[in-house]
Amino acid sequence: MKYISTRGGGERLSSAEAIIQGLSANGGLFVPEELPAVDAAFIQGLVSLSYEERAVAVLQQFLTDYTEEELCGCVTRAYGMGKFDTERKAPTKMFDDCSVLELWHGPTSAFKDMALQLLPQLLQTALAKTGETADVLILVATSGDTGKAALEGFRDVAQTKIMVFYPQGGVSRIQGLQMLTQEGGNVNVTAVRGNFDDAQSGVKRIFSDAAFGEELASHGVKLSSANSINWGRLVPQIVYYFSAYADLLAAGRIAYGDEVNFCVPTGNFGDILAGYYAKRMGLPVGRLICASNRNNVLTEFLRTGTYNRKREFFKTITPSMDILISSNLERLLYHAVGNAEQVAAWMRQLAEQGSYTISKELLANIQKTFWADWADDEATKATIRKAYETKHYIPDTHTAVAWCVAENYQKQTADRREMVVVSTASPYKFNGSVLTALGVSTDGMDEFSMLDKLQELNDNPIPRGLASLRDKAVRHHDVCARDEMKNFVAAFAKQ
Fold first, then answer.
1. Predicted local confidence at residue 490, as pLDDT
2. pTM, 2 dp
């Protein structure tokens, strides 16, 4: 299987080459030239398998230049060795009226671990397969969770360095501590004066700067990405949609062929896009419900067909979704319209004018699969309270946005197909907001007092990676302006 750019051009890369390169030379994202299809026997065969075995089966459909032995090794190193706190890496918690797909049992307590424990293994294998001798510098822009998950995944991985940019003051206190205390000889964490879109746009500019790439190459360094713009970051996420469906089959919750709706808290559009790929492959997915916070640019787009980033930016209690430029939407547009020149034109309009509009026909086609709504902070907190009071279950703030939107969808459509709420983070990562939602005063409490207080209410213990922050020293202090990011990258690359 070959990979091509959403914006056209002549590149046709193997999956290993696409994973090393990260972003195409013309700024587009790599997508499979054609999408694989699976049958009923494949899906039903997943029921008796472990998560690791399910992962290999799904990854084989896309990473066709990796051998089965290589994929098994990558998956074992990613998900083994006690890194996850549950035997089933992505368990599905089932309630009477919905199910919750818990994706936060990895080392950094966020769904990003599902991909970012695996991506370094895929990349290291790709470097060996292609004979690449340069060091790979991973650049990451994070709204909170990706940064720590990427740092932990790439920590001390041979032939790699990783540099994470995050918006100063734009992540939760726990998220900040997780990154700033990161250990490892190949890591750097730098705050950017601005918001996530400033950090992400800066990283994209660095990737598309050919002269800078040549300068780094002269020092034996090439750039790649651990954001979901990298195909190697996105493809592991397809696995857990198949795994959730297999879990529902195993529990007798559904019969094979029954369609399942997934409601996904959405910022950069990668998580929900993985569900779209699963559906296109043949998994019986009904609607993919895109749940946003007050930064509801995606809700507006999926309702009207106009994507407009020229709007007020809000800081919310769901910081990982405080995003106005959703990179992975470009992949959906490519698959929906099938015209790379048109996609490139829309992306130019977005960069130069701040907005673009798709045709009514294309929007109607997209709406057959996607439905969108949003929840503000008050609705989010009310949903956390309701989940605790009615189910004795405590979701994090992002999961609560999805839960709220899922309930709105069911009320507005009367669709009674099985609903899976995709849970993207442990409530302990957003302890202050969660405690406030539960009516607990946090006055005078530090982060660790809040962790302890939340544990008193929660059936799940404090995750190891968060509990250990109490004793860790802050190691990273760099702060830069948006226009200084390239200089900081150059300095780190040459260390």
1. 97
2. 0.94
Instruction: Kindly state the tokens that stand for 442.
Output: 């946090």
Q: Are 323 and 196 in contact (CB under 8 A)?
A: yes
Average pLDDT over residues 159-164: 97
Find out whether 182 and 209 touch, Cβ atoms under 8 Å.
Answer: no
And the tokens for 88?
A: 């089933």
H/E stretch holding 418 reads strand 418-423
How many angstroms separate the CA atoms of 279 and 32, rounded? 15
At the top level of CATH, the class of 92-107+232-463 is alpha beta
Burial of 465 (0-12, 13-18, 19+ CB in 10 A): buried
Amino acid letter, residue 217: A
Q: What sign results for the dihedral spanned by CA atoms 356, 362, 363, 369?
A: negative
Domain residue spans of the chain: 92-107+232-463, 135-219+464-494
Q: What does pLDDT average to over the chain? A: 96
Residue 307's beta-bridge partner residues? 356
Dihedral angle sign, alpha carbons of residues 140, 105, 269, 315: negative
Task: Answer yes or no: 411 catalytic.
Answer: no
Q: How far is CA 435 from CA 46, 165, 328, in A?
A: 38, 28, 32
For domain 135-219+464-494, the question of CATH label 3.40.50.1100 is answered with yes
Element spanning 239, H or E? helix 231-250
Q: From the candidates 83, 89, 112, 429, which is the catalytic residue? A: 112
Largest CA distance in the chain: 60
Residue 143 pLDDT class (50, 70, 90 cuts): confident
CA–CA dist 317, 376 (Å, integer): 9
Q: How far apart are CA 177 and CA 163, in angstroms?
A: 16
Q: Do domains 92-107+232-463 and 135-219+464-494 have the same CATH topology?
A: yes
pLDDT at 363 over 90: yes
Q: For residue 472, what pLDDT band results from cuts at 50, 70 and 90?
A: very high
